[in-house]
Structures are given as C-alpha cells and as structure tokens.
C-alpha cells in the first residue's frame, strides 16, 4: 500500500471511530438543535418584484410544484396550535374575518394532521415580525410597501438535521393598503381574504413558494384582486403538505 493511501485510510477510520463518540456526548434532545430563527415571507401583487422564493437550499423543482420552508420543519406537538385574530383594522365584519381564516385552516387540515387549534378574536394582539412571543397572530395594518398584499413570519428551528427541525410560532399581517373582502362579490374589486389567508396559513404550516411556473398552486407567490383560486389547494400543495406531515 502506498504511504498516501495508508494515511487516507487511517484518516477515514479515525473519522468513523471518533465521530459517533462526539455526537454521543451532546445532551439528549439538543443534538444540533437551533438556533431559533425566523423566516419572513412576503406576498406581492402579481407583476411586482422578482421571484422571491424563500427557504431551504436550492431552487424548488418545477415538476414538483411545492417546497418547504426547510425540509422537515413543521409543527410537532400534534395538539393543534391555537391562534388569535385581530380584525380591528380590517374594516370587515368580525365573523366574516373569522370564517375566512378558519376556512383556510380547514383546507390545510383536510390533508395534513392536526396543525392548527382553535381561533380566538382578540383586539389587543398585534403583528410583530421581530419578536418571538409564543402567540400565533393574525392582524391587519398598513405595510410600508403598497405592492405587498400580506406578510407571514414563521419562527422555528430550521437548521440541523431535518428530524430535529420544528416550527414554534407564526404571525401574519394583511396590508390594509388593499380593500379586503369576498372576491366573489361582483360589486367591488377586493383582495379576497380567504384566498390570501389560505396561502399565508400554508407558510404557517411549513410550506414555501413553488417554482414560479406553478401558477395554479395555493402557494404560488403572487396574487391579484378578486382572485379566489388559492382557496382550494392544488395538486402540488396537497402533495407537499402530505409529505411534510406524513
Ligand atoms: Zn407566500
């Protein structure tokens, strides 16, 4: 055996023998866990901004038409995470808002496991994209860019081995630059709340944006006034949520 080959083999053996020892020395449950970070997903009106796929490594594949914020990053408690809705600044009937958000929740739960819990109306909660406060929040307010329809912030452990990744909080803001309502109402052009909520709730569950060719998916990154097609999950959305929560 050549000397260089011997050194290589010895090095390989050392790696194989030493690595499990190092891994075993870490406290159980904290192997490579963390840090806790956030991902901010911005939902633009169609035609604005360049593709803004966020999350994971590499580009989403067009033929799959779904992506994850990070592979394996999902809710793990299985009890259903409660969330608070503040319709104060929406200009809408509170029941309309709650019904639209819950419809979005139900659409994902038809295919995923028990991701979301009960909703609660709370006029005191506000969207805060900077702080992890353990309250999942739905809020309305003016966002400083008119081309933005809504923003979702998802907190979690997105690095480390996929099996250790986890989502721990989500918050979303609907930009009141737009008039919100029911897109099927023929009298006024509005941003359909259920349509956009279903998209944002996909982020809350761990879904990212698909390739920009996948225009029919609920998780497609752009929307227009009166659009309602995101209310129902498309084939890519369904494949994605089923794979994430299997
Ligand atoms: Zn989005």
In short:
By secondary structure, this protein is α/β, with parallel strands linked by helices.
Task: Walk me through what this model shows.
With 246 residues, the protein is α/β, with parallel strands linked by helices. 25% of the residues lie in helices and 22% in strands. The chain has helices spanning 3-24, 94-109, 193-205, 235-244; strands at 36-45, 81-86, 116-121, 137-141, 148-157, 166-175, 180-181, 191-192, 222-223. The strands form two sheets. It has a seven-stranded mixed β-sheet with strand order 3-2-4-6-5-1-9, covered by helices on one side. A two-stranded parallel sheet has the order 7-8. It is globular and about 50 Å long. Residues 41, 43, 199, 203, 209, 221 line the site of zinc ion.
Q: List each distinct ligand once.
A: zinc ion
Number of strands: 9
Structural class: alpha/beta
CA radius of gyration is 21 Å
Strand order of the largest sheet: 3-2-4-6-5-1-9
Give the CA-based shape. Answer: globular
Q: Largest sheet at a glance?
A: 7 strands, mixed
Main attributes of the structure:
7-stranded mixed β-sheet; 246 residues; 22% strand; binds zinc ion; two-stranded parallel ribbon; 9 strands; alpha/beta
């Amino acid at each position: 055996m050549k000397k260089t080959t011997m050194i290589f083999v010895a090095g390989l053996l050392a790696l194989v023998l030493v690595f499990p020892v190092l891994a075993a020395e870490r406290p159980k449950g904290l192997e490579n866990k963390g840090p806790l970070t956030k991902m901010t997903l911005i939902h633009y009106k169609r035609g604005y901004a360049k593709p803004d796929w966020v999350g994971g490594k590499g580009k989403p594949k067009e033929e799959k038409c779904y992506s994850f914020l990070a592979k394996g990053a999902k809710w793990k408690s299985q009890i259903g995470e409660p969330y608070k809705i503040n319709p104060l600044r929406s200009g809408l009937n509170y029941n309309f808002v709650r019904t639209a958000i819950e419809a979005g929740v139900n659409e994902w739960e038809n295919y995923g496991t028990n991701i979301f819990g009960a909703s609660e109306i709370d006029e005191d909660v506000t969207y805060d994209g900077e702080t992890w406060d353990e309250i999942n929040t739905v809020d309305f307010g003016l966002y400083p860019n008119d081309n933005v329809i809504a923003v979702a912030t998802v907190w979690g452990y997105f690095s480390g081995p996929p099996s250790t990744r986890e989502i721990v909080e989500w918050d979303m803001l609907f930009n009141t630059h737009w008039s919100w309502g029911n897109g099927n109402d023929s009298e006024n052009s509005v941003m359909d709340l259920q349509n956009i909520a279903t998209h944002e709730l996909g982020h809350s569950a761990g879904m990212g944006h698909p390739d920009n060719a996948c225009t029919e998916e609920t998780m497609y990154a752009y929307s227009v006034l009166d659009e309602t097609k995101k209310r129902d999950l498309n084939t890519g959305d369904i494949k994605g949520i089923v794979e994430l929560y299997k």
